[in-house]
Amino acid sequence: MAEAALKSWRPLADRMRPRTLAEFVGQTQLLAPGKPLYEAIAARALHSMILWGPPGTGKTTLARLMAAASDAEFIPLSAVQAGIKDIREAVARARQVAAAGNPTVLFLDEVHRFNKAQQDSFLPHVEDGTLVFIGATTENPSFEIVGALLSRARVYVLKSLEAADLKSLLERALADGEHGLGDIGLAIEPEALELLAQAGDGDARRALGMLELAAGLAGAAGGSVITAAQAHEVAAGGRRRFDKGGEQFYDQISALHKAVRGSDPDAALYWYARMIDGGCDPHYLARRVLRMASEDIGLADPRALSIALEAWQAYERLGSPEGDLAIAEAVVYMAVAAKSNAIYTGYGAAQADVERYGTLDVPMQLRNAPTKLMKELGYGSGYRYAHDEPGAFAAGERYLPEGLPDRRYYEPAPRGLELKIGEALARLRERNQNADQSRAKVKPR
């Protein structure tokens, strides 16, 4: 049985690549009858496109099917290895094919790895119809593809495969005697099938790779059934999809921050665990939690900032995995703490006024006067020392520069400690108002 399993050195995922649209699994949002891409393939309407989606969702296969349906020459390139020279050779080949009356599809995998100049090199040949360009990427085309090329190509978004899709694919591979594992005669326990489908994490290539390994274990043991134990062995240690600098990263940190802001500790813990599982640097997460303490909690609960700092320090001393728990504690605290963005919005408003009003002079009474000359010039003259005033508050004193209207940048939220801060500020502002009214009643002589 083991010798039969080695009938081909090609990976099972490559052998099981769909050869017709009917064999394609998933992506019904694009390939169901009536959908634009399905109809384009059926009508042999080739056009340039960007296929954007996670690994193992069928981008390369879909490009091959598009070319085959239109009897087009298919030239595959990988942006990891290809350069301008390869593009020139592909264009030359496309011109030969065009002379014979056939179209050419140039497929570029991982197109986001090409720089701007390399991407621009496609433009004239796409423009004049020498070739149809199909690019595949796991990254957001808005950020990674030059605008000129993006405007000439339609973007199709592929989604991660559902577990049911992967189960169907795995069952087909076990039954297919020509390309799959059908000639081995292996069965699979239902629990093992479910485990491999879940561990595939939406990636057909990954799921088929694990099935091939599990089949090898079963064959080596002389069994005829892939067991749950064997499936667990090949699936153990796998990480969920996560790109430390790409779309997955920014989507997940956004979800984590918004769960904390929305006071949902369960969702916050989930996204934190997802990012740790995916290999995110805990130092980055600790920094982000520190930002949450200032941006979303502020003085509604001043302890949040201390807890965030202490969690970071605990991680510095313990490292992973022990220190991960300290950050998790801080994440939960941020989620359940009283929320206020008063400091965040107030600081933003102050920054906007600095930009708008420019370099306004510091009022004379607020200036520092360390020398005799400066005192003679009036620096610090008229300053009221707040500690010498009733309640340590100089009622009616103004600390903003001339030329800047009165502002209230900081408006405490009616929650947590800021509820009391707001009440205290209201009393002080009332004293200011009364002092202003008293001065207005004093008639100049």
Q: Give me the Rg, rounded.
A: 33 Å
The N- to C-terminal Cα distance equals: 113 Å
Helicity, as a percent range: 40-55%
Strand count, sense and closure of the main sheet? Answer: 5 strands, parallel
Q: Would you tell me the structural class of the helices and strands?
A: alpha/beta
Could you give the order of strands across the largest sheet? 2-3-4-1-5
Report the top-level CATH class of the largest domain: Alpha Beta
Corresponding CATH superfamily of the largest domain: P-loop containing nucleotide triphosphate hydrolases
What is the approximate shape? elongated
DSSP helical segment count:
22
The total number of structural domains is 4
In the CATH hierarchy, what is the architecture of the largest domain at level 2?
3-Layer(aba) Sandwich
H/E series: HHHHEHEHEHHEHHEHEHHEHHHHHHHHH
Beta-strand fraction estimate: 5-15%
Task: Count the E strands.
Answer: 7
* Low-confidence runs of at least 5 consecutive residues: 1-7
CATH topology of the largest domain: Rossmann fold
